Amino acid sequence: MYVAVKGGERAIENAHTWLAEERRGDTSVAELSIEQIREQLSLAVNRVMAEGSLYDPDLAALAIKQSRGDLIEAIFLIRAYRTTLPRFGSSNPVNTAEMACDRRISATFKDVPGGQLLGPTFDYTHRLLDFKLAAEGETAEAPNRDTDATAIPHVIDFLNAEGLIEEAPHDDTTPPDLTREPLEMPADRPLRLQALTRGDEGFVLSMAYSTQRGYARNHAFVGELRIGSVAVEMDIPELGFAIEIGEITLTECETVNQFKGSKSEPPQFTRGYGLVFGQTERKAISMALVDRALRWEELGEDNVGAPAQDAEFVLYHADNIQATGFLEHIKLPHYVDFQSELELVRKLRREAMADNVAEAAE
To answer: What is the pTM of this model?
Structure first.
C-alpha cells in the first residue's frame, strides 16, 4: 500500500508540473499578465467575481490565469480564497438610485428622464469577426464620453407613482448570508436572490429562456437595465456615522411583468429583480426573469409545473461549484464500488443463463 501511495503522489506532482507547462503555453509568446486579463477580459472577470461572491478584479484575473481560462475553476478558486478572509463588519445596502450610470436603457418607455444611455454594448454590433483586432492596433477613445455622470431616477418609480405596479417590499430584517450558511428550503426572496446572483450564468439563462417560451406564464418587459458605479458605505460605531469605503460596478435589471390579478392581489404590473457585480447584463436580466417566476406563490398565482417555478430545483442546481464537485467526483477512483457492481452483474448473468437453460430443457 505504501508503494502505491507514493506512486500516486509522484504521479500527481507530475500532473501539476505538466499543468503548469500547459498553462504557460509556448514560451516564445509573451506571458499574459494579470493587468491584461483584468482590463481586456473584463466580462470574464466580472462573471468570476459575481459567481465567486467576491468583488476583487485583480484576484478574479489571477484566478482566470491560474485556471487557464476555465471560468468555473476560477470561480471555485475565488470562493475557496474567500473563506480564508476575516470579516470586519457589514456594509450598508447600496443605493442604486444614485448609481453613476455608464449604460441605462428602458424597453418600456422611449423618453425617460435622464435619457437612454447605450453605453458599451454588443447589442448594435455585427456578429462578424473583426480581423483588425488581430493586428493589435490601438483603439480610438469613445467620443462625447460623460465623465461627470449624475444620478438618474429609476424608470419603475414612474409606474409606482401611478399605483400601476406592486409596491417594492420593505423589510429591515437582516437576511441570511448564503456565503456563510447553507441553503435551506423553503427559501424566502432575499435568499433566492443571493442564490441567483451567484448562480451559473448559463443555467440561470436557460431557466429564464424557459419562462419566455411559456414555461411559467411569465411575459416580461425590461423596465430598466442600468450599469454603473455605486458607493459602498459602512457604519463606524466610533464615529457615529457611515463613511464611504469604496466604489463597485454593478448591473441592475428591473422587469415589468403582466399580472391579471389573483384572489389575493389586484390587477397590476409585478416586478422581477436582478443585481450582479460588474457589467453582467445577460445574467442580471436572466436573474430578474427567474426571480419573477419563483414569486408565483406570494402573488397567489397557479403553479403550472414549470421548472423555473420550482425553487428547490432552480436554487439547488444553479450553483456551478456544487454541481462541478458532484459531477467530477465520478472520475476519481471507484475501484471497490465497481468491482462489487461487476460481481453483481456477473451473478445476474449466470442466473439468467441458468434459467434459460432450464426453460429450454422443459
So the answer is: 0.85
